[in-house]
Design brief:
single chain; alpha/beta; 5-stranded parallel β-sheet; 52% helix; globular
Amino acid sequence: MTIRVIIVDDQAMVRAGFAALLSAQADIDVVGEAPDGRQGVQVSRTVHPDVVLMDVRMPEMDGLTAARELLSPPPGVVHRPKVLMLTTFDIDDYVYEALRAGASGFLLKDAPPADLIAAVRVVASGEALLAPSVTRRLIADFVQQRPAPRKDPALRLKGLTPRETEVLELIARGLSNQEIAGHLVLAEQTVKTHIGRVLAKLDLRDRAQAVVFAYEAGLVRPGDCA
């Protein structure tokens, strides 16, 4: 199935470059673009993409605000695309908040072309973005600097079974499904089932939000490793 993508960035050259690269892939179709977050939201609600490539810093409406509008739409709007944040720096003040808002992850603008293509495919499939260790480092840095209140997340953990809690911890420590399966001596499909139940019980969109939740709940701490 073809992955429908829109590109939201205030630099025309960036949009053109990303569009040319992605359109050359047989399984990706660039169906729109916008120069700021406000127009990006409008285009998304018109063409219903699977993935939105969203720049963090833009005029009119920044990428974080636009991501929130797309991922928490008003009543009557049912389409919610996956949002992939684009940033110039590997640590950006907006990125952590974007993940908490429901964005599926982040990608550096100067990443190799193959990484951009792979990121779009990964996000479209519902998986976490980039290497788990990169996402883990990003989340750890921000949780360490600005820890969120833990009362509510800690209480929500009680709804998980011991095995589900264990799986959530390993996700937050940066393990892939295959690595979790090996660590727990389970079939990879069983791990996927556990992850699906964790996301459903905690009302989380994807693995990126699961990592945020695990840190906020105190299940793992910055600096922990598998």
